[in-house]
Amino acid sequence: MAEVEYKGIKIGGSKLLLILPLIGTIMGGLWGGFELFDRYRTMEAKIDTYVTPDLSGFDKRLEVMQKEMDNILAEVELLAGVNKDMKVDMKGDIRRIETIVEDTESKVKEDSRELNRDINVAIKDLKEDMTALEAKIEKQIKLALENPLSNMAISK
């Protein structure tokens, strides 16, 4: 196997296979540490030069929007009140209309009953008048037939 000798130290191939990755790991760790330190310094410089943005315009716009929202809420509350009043008024109107309809229905039923009663009375009176008229006509016919001058005697 291959051996490497450095200042009197002999290193065999198997030991060399262990030392080379160890050296690579140490060098990679050192390089990563330096990169981390460099990024830290860059970040620190950026933080030192950071200036907070002016948000006063944003705050003013938020204030204007809050006032608009308050106005809108006031209008919504006003509309809700108007809606409630209209609802109450409509309920009252509906109750009045229902009362008028019920009164009209009862009057129509009462008038219908009275009309039926009057019609029945009229029919009864008409029947009585017709019966009386029939009796009168029959009597007149009988008298006319029994009249000796008419020569139409009733044969019995």
Q: What's this, in brief?
A:
With 156 residues, the chain is mainly α.
How does this model look, in words?
Strands 1-2 form a two-stranded antiparallel sheet. The radius of gyration is 62 Å and the shape is rod-shaped. Helix content is 82%, strand content 5%. The protein is built from 2 helices and 2 strands. 0% of the residues are buried. The chain has 156 residues and is mostly helical.
Structural class: mainly alpha
The SSE string, one letter per element, is EEHH
Outline type = rod-shaped
Number of domains: 2
SSE diagram, text form:
Blueprint: E1 3-6, E2 9-12, H1 13-49, H2 56-146
Q: Any key phrases for this structure?
A:
single chain; 156 residues; mainly alpha; 2 domains; two-stranded antiparallel sheet; 2 helices; 2 strands; rod-shaped
